[in-house]
Amino acid sequence: MSPRGIDQKLPFRPPGDLVLDAILSAAGVPVRSRDRETKRRKLASILQGHPDGPALLADPRNPALLNSDLIDVILGGLLPGETYFFRNRLHAQVLRQHLLPLWGAGTKRLIKIWSAGCSSGEEPYTLNMIVKQFRSRWGPGDLRIYASDINDQALKAARRAEYSEWSLRMLDPAERARYFEIHGESFVVKPEYRELCLFFQHNLCHDPFPSYLLGIDQMQLILCRNVLMYLPRRDIPRVVDGFTRSLAPGGFLLVGSAESHLLASSSLTPVPLGGLLLYQRPENGSGPATDAVAAVQKRAARQANQPAPRSKRSANATDPEGGRKEIDHLLALARLEFSSGAFQQAEILIQSILSLQPLCEEAYYHLGLLYAEQARPDHARDCLRRCLFLNPQHAAARHALKGLGHGSPHNGPRTIHSR
Question: In 5-133, where do the E strands start and end?
């Protein structure tokens, strides 16, 4: 048998689970328990097609084999990265109509926005496009957009600011002409819509934050949409706490609509605003900033034709009976919105109840039914279990949870019933 030459290609063998888990951990890939088997299969396929893959599988604890290029390939293949410009027009509307005027009316200060999990840059550049019209309210250097991602390859693409037509699919011809230069078949973001964005690599699960050195502190707004749902459950409380401490007093956190339940135990206050549910870090005392936020909430509530949320103190401490009536009223409104198919409005109303009374078993029960109707069984189970933790005798919640546990579809009428 001839000795193995140094350039002889190693044969690919099916790797063991422990080997794959070691590589996932070393590459910094966040993995939920229920996704681990899927990630292992994808990783094995990625390594099989990469020149350094077999050598790494043969010696997974050799750091020299897990080079930065291979890590980028692994992250790019395992993490979700699909995004596009102006992905959610409602988010842009709330920023333009409510938040930017609020910041412009406040004390002059540095306005800082953080796009956490920015992928290839479409979100931070969209933010830059939105705030451009408000730049006259601030001088040079008074507004910054920080953009981070775990994947260095995605960040390199973001810094190039060059995109295919697919990333612009939500823009009309006038918007494309306003924001982009055409280079062959590519669209390049114009320099004036890139100047506020600062890109850097950051792993939410492994890297510390807030960070004065990176500038991710005292944020007025943090956007982290559809990222928390992909993190291991054990890491989510620490990440949410990091976001909370990275916000300035009165600052807002915006997460994906399917991630609201992950913030239920945080110290952030749910704030319905212009049809969105944001999470606000409490102010340290009252003052002009607090009054401005309250005014924005009332105006948004009038526009949505729904009652403006009251503070926890006014709803509970000073008038317990009045607080109970308000919760019952909001529950009734939520049932009406749900029955008409307005799921987002129903969720906002139920989350408002939880901001008034975090231990409201009925709010968790109704939120569980809402998630079940939207085919989000994991979220539904989580809410129903919270309800049963608060009231083990809640028969309706127990029955609903039992149905979800057997995977039975919801075939009843689309109506939320009271107990």
Answer: 111-116
